[in-house]
């Protein structure tokens, strides 16, 4: 299993490749707000763990293993953002909250959160009931 730092890189690389068709060291550095030298070190580590193939000055390509994990990490992030919106977290704090918790939840917990999100998406009237409870609790 990748470390939380490796997960951040794999998630960002996956997104860049999906959006642009490629991911360069400079793109990753800009997206993660880190130095290119840090990216190069991590990319080499991800290469040695067979998450991607990296050739200096030529770029990188995710392996099947890397694509699978990258896709799952993007799903986890988007799912947690949806969950935060459903439970009424202020939009301005959602990204930071998700970044703070996503590496600390088991995949079983993520799957259960997915069940909750699916339930609320299939029953939008329940979201309004939740908002009513939240407003009532704020008044108490």
Give me the secondary-structure topology.
Layout: H1 4-20, H2 25-32, H3 36-48, E1 52-55, E2 59-62, H4 64-86, H5 91-101, H6 107-122, H7 124-139
Antiparallel strand pairs: 1-2
Helix pairs in contact: 1-2, 1-4, 2-3, 4-5, 4-6, 6-7
User: Which structural class do you get from the secondary structure elements?
Assistant: mainly alpha
**Whole-Å distance between the termini?**
45 Å
Shape by Cα distribution: elongated
Architecture of the largest domain, according to CATH?
Answer: Orthogonal Bundle
Number of H/I helices: 7
CATH superfamily name of the largest domain?
Answer: Iron dependent repressor, metal binding and dimerisation domain
Q: How many structurally independent domains?
A: 2
Name the average pLDDT: 94
CATH topology of the largest domain: Diphtheria Toxin Repressor, domain 2
- What integer value in Å does the Rg equal? 18 Å
Percent range for β-strand residues: 5-15%
Number of strands: 2
Order of helices and strands: HHHEEHHHH
Strand order of the largest sheet: 1-2
Query: Helical amount among residues, as a percent range?
Result: over 70%
Main sheet makeup: 2 strands, antiparallel
What does this structure look like?
This protein has 140 residues and is mostly helical. The chain folds into 2 domains: 4-68, Arc Repressor Mutant, subunit A (Orthogonal Bundle); 74-139, Diphtheria Toxin Repressor, domain 2 (Orthogonal Bundle), CATH 1.10.60. 74% of the residues lie in helices and 6% in strands. It contains 7 helices and 2 strands, in the order H-H-H-E-E-H-H-H-H. It has helices at 4-20, 25-32, 36-48, 64-86, 91-101, 107-122, 124-139, and strands spanning 52-55, 59-62. A two-stranded antiparallel ribbon has the order 1-2. A hairpin with a 3-residue loop joins strand 1 (52-55) and strand 2 (59-62). Helix 2 (25-32) crosses helix 3 (36-48) and helix 6 (107-122) packs across helix 7 (124-139). It is elongated, with a radius of gyration of 18 Å. The model has no long low-confidence stretch (mean pLDDT 94).
């Amino acid at each position: 299993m990748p470390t939380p730092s490796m997960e951040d890189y794999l998630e960002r690389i996956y997104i860049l490749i999906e959006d642009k068709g490629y991911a360069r060291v400079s793109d990753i550095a800009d997206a993660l707000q880190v130095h290119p030298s840090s990216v190069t070190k991590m990319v080499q580590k991800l290469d040695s763990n067979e998450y991607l193939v990296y050739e200096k000055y030529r770029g990188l390509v995710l392996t099947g293993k890397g694509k699978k994990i990258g896709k799952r990490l993007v799903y986890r992030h988007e799912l947690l953002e949806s969950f935060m919106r459903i439970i009424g977290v202020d939009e301005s704090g959602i990204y930071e909250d998700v970044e703070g918790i996503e590496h600390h939840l088991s995949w079983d917990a993520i799957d259960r959160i997915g069940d909750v999100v699916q339930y609320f998406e299939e029953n939008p009237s329940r979201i309004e009931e939740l908002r009513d409870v939240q407003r009532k609790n704020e008044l108490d």
